Amino acid sequence: MIVGIGVDLVDIPRFERTVERTPRLLERLFTAHERALPLHSLAARYAAKEALIKALGGSDGVHWNEIEIERTGESVPPRFALSGSTADVVARRGIAHLHLSLSHDAGLAIAYVIAEGAGEGAVAGAGAGVGAGAGAGVGAGAGVGAGAVTPGTAFVPDPDDQARLADDAAGDDILDDDFLDDDILDDDIEVPEPEDPEEPR
């Protein structure tokens, strides 16, 4: 039974600029093993961690350094290696399998996560997370969060999560909130002046 879905999209060049400007992000967001990877691979892993949080319905008890994306070979799909309280959160929510798909192309990295429960009625307090988003922000995306799932009923988000869901839909994430200056877009994007329309003859 699917109990959560999450997706996240990262602008790789912007991610790279952010990490170059604030190198301490690497230690905050990635494990020692992950930090040895090139930045485009880290951008995809950042997207995977954001997508996981969306699939879980929120970040309570989840810590970035307790989520590692492993890849043991070229033809082997990536997988999550969870530890500490993050692993406990996943277990308490009855999640038996986490499916992960990563891709990057044309300056973007995307991650898609499906959280699968052990069986019907095994999960309470987790819900379906669905979203996609693009925008100027690194890691912009949308998600639908926690709620109760029981056999024969529809998913209903927990009312307490509505504000967080609105923030997710607006693209709020760790990089945007804590580390990006509001004027970064003004420095990076040139907007052409509108041309004056010709006057009718």
Please, could you describe this protein's structure?
This protein is an alpha+beta fold. 32% of the residues lie in helices and 21% in strands. The chain is built from eight helices and seven strands; from the N terminus they run βααααββαββββααα. It has helices at 12-21, 24-29, 32-35, 39-56, 84-92, 162-169, 174-178, 184-188, and strands at residues 2-11, 67-70, 79-82, 95-105, 108-117, 147-148, 156-157. The chain has a three-stranded antiparallel beta sheet with strand order 1-5-4. Strands 2-3 form a two-stranded antiparallel ribbon. A hairpin with a 2-residue loop joins strand 4 and strand 5 (108-117). The longest helix has 18 residues, at 39-56. It is globular. The termini are far apart. The model is unreliable at 121-172 and 176-192 (pLDDT under 50).
- Give the proportion of residues in helices: 25-40%
Task: Report strand %.
Answer: 15-25%
Question: What would the principal axes of the Cα set say about the shape?
Answer: globular
Whole-number mean pLDDT: 73
Oligomer: single chain
- Residue windows where pLDDT falls under 50 for at least 5 positions: 121-172, 176-192
Please count the helical segments. Answer: 8
Task: State the secondary-structure class.
Answer: alpha+beta
Taking Cα atoms only, what radius of gyration do you get, to the nearest Å?
19 Å
How far is the N terminus from the C terminus?
67 Å
Write down how many β-strands occur, each being a DSSP E stretch of 2 or more residues. 7
Strand order of the largest sheet: 1-5-4
Q: What is the H/E order?
A: EHHHHEEHEEEEHHH
Sheet with the most strands, sense and barrel status: 3 strands, antiparallel
